[in-house]
Amino acid sequence: MAATEKDIVVGLDLGSAGITVAVLRGGPLSKREVLGVGFSPSIGIDKGEIINTDDAVGSLQRAVADAELAAGVDISYVYASADVPGMQLRCASAQFKAGGGRDISRWKPQEIYRELYRQVLLPDYSVVQLTGIRYYIDGEPVKAPAAARPGNSLLVEALVIMAPTRSVEEKQKCLRQAGLKVKQAVAGPLAVAEAVLSGMERELGVVCVDIGAALTKVAYLNRGLVVDMGIFPVGGDHITADLAVGLRTTLEDAEAVKSKYGLSRVDGHIKVQAMSGAGHTVPGDLVYTVVQARVQEILEFIKGFIDSLHIDNSLPGGIVITGGGAMLPGLPELAGDYLAMPVRVGSSCLLPESVPEDEVYRYTTAVGLALWGARQGTAVRGARWGAESSILNRIRSWLSL
Ligand SMILES: Nc1ncnc2c1ncn2[C@@H]1O[C@H](COP(=O)(O)OP(=O)(O)OP(=O)(O)O)[C@@H](O)[C@H]1O
Ligand SMILES: [Mg+2]
């Protein structure tokens, strides 16, 4: 029987290189499968930011139409990635006391969330996502305040993910103009973790790294929960650009050299096309020198993130890398040596066989977004806040689409 929009959950990733869509059949875990995917090169998006709305809308529509055709469904609701440079995660906590005839179980979620946002929301930033919420009544963990026993004080802890308001609004505008409704915006690193990590890795403690075209995103998970994340403005396209300059060649040739040799040691000389169109030769070891320098920068970001966790390099789940950048020949090995930890390359195993092997990496975030959505069910975390004040406007963020 053909799937309808009721049966499916759709993840949509606005990547710097490509917009990808994954249509997941929802329902019980064992029945989940990706029915179809869609892709369009990202025109109008640069380094995670919208630089031309009309072009970006066109790219979005092409990727969605591609997925609709592949999965045989109409798409209007999506779980969308919200990654932009400057995205940040902050831990927030707020305490609520009983009193004045009001029991603590009567605090409304909206009031609780608003207080959490008020604690950490930076000027000119909007809330992207609230996650990892934990409630304690008189110091005892409870599932939710409404279901809880009476007490004197309610402590709520959560992770608030926020991004510069201007960038968030640009992405919202594009999605709206493309005729899409966002069920929830999800930080890419959280979605990627959903797609590539095993339950055991999440429990033990693991760092998940997504090396994209323009951004490298990292998330640290422990005891099943996201603890921290970071986003750095460097990715695979920087390696291509460096090679184009270093080898005095076109971006197309630089891309081909990158994918072919990566971090391999190349003997002798290789032939590349000069900007003028003529061919010329360059020393093979120059490829390694150029690629290694940029990869080193990416690895330093990752190392800095791990150091900032203060976990004394204790990561029993190791490091899982994914994204197009992770396909660079030799990168997993160099990362393992540099970070002195086990590194494996992760990808989603839910994709249909029709997706060519060398394109699987593209869909990791989109699949993760759909899986995230399937896990949330219909309960969208956050609230449809009114626009009473500036802070509420910024909280309203994605849900008002
Ligand atoms: N085989 C390969 N070897 C090296 N690099 C590769 C390979 N395949 C793809 N890439 C690089 O991966 C990058 C694209 O990755 P990906 O699709 O994950 O990016 P994105 O999600 O669109 O970008 P971002 O996450 O930064 O917004 C490009 O820089 C591309 O050159
Ligand atoms: Mg990406």
Question: Any overview of this molecule?
Answer:
With 401 residues, this protein is of the alpha+beta class. Among the domains are: 88-164, Dna Ligase, domain 1; 236-343, 2-Layer Sandwich (Nucleotidyltransferase, domain 5). Helices cover 34% and strands 29% of the residues. It has 11 helices and 18 strands. The protein has helices at residues 53-71, 109-120, 165-177, 188-196, 199-204, 236-246, 251-261, 284-308, 331-339, 364-376, 390-396, and strands spanning 8-14, 18-25, 33-41, 45-46, 49-50, 77-81, 88-97, 125-137, 140-142, 153-164, 181-186, 206-211, 216-222, 225-232, 269-273, 279-283, 319-322, 343-345. The strands form 5 sheets. It has a 5-stranded mixed beta sheet. Strands 14-13-12-17-18 form a 5-stranded mixed beta sheet, with helices on both faces. Strands 7-10-8-9 form a 4-stranded antiparallel beta sheet. The chain is globular, with a radius of gyration of 22 Å. The site of adenosine-5'-triphosphate (ATP) has 24 residues, from helix 6 and helix 7.
**CATH topology type of the domain at 236-343:** Nucleotidyltransferase, domain 5
What structural category characterises the helix and strand content?
Answer: alpha+beta
Largest sheet: 5 strands, mixed
Would you state the CATH class of the domain at 236-343? Alpha Beta
C-alpha-based Rg, rounded: 22 Å
Q: What percentage of amino acids are in beta strands?
A: 25-35%
* Relevant CATH superfamily of the domain at 236-343: ATPase, nucleotide binding domain
Helix content: 25-40%
If strands are numbered along the chain, what order do they take across the biggest sheet? 3-2-1-6-11
Name of the CATH architecture of the domain at 236-343: 2-Layer Sandwich
- The helix/strand series, from N terminus to C terminus, equals EEEEEHEEHEEEHEHHEEEHHEEHEHEHH
* Average pLDDT number: 89
> How many helices?
11
> Using DSSP, what is the number of strands?
18
Q: Which ligands accompany this protein?
A: adenosine-5'-triphosphate, magnesium ion
The rough form would be described as: globular
End-to-end separation in angstroms reads 31 Å
Q: Report low-confidence residues grouped into runs of 5 or more.
A: 378-390
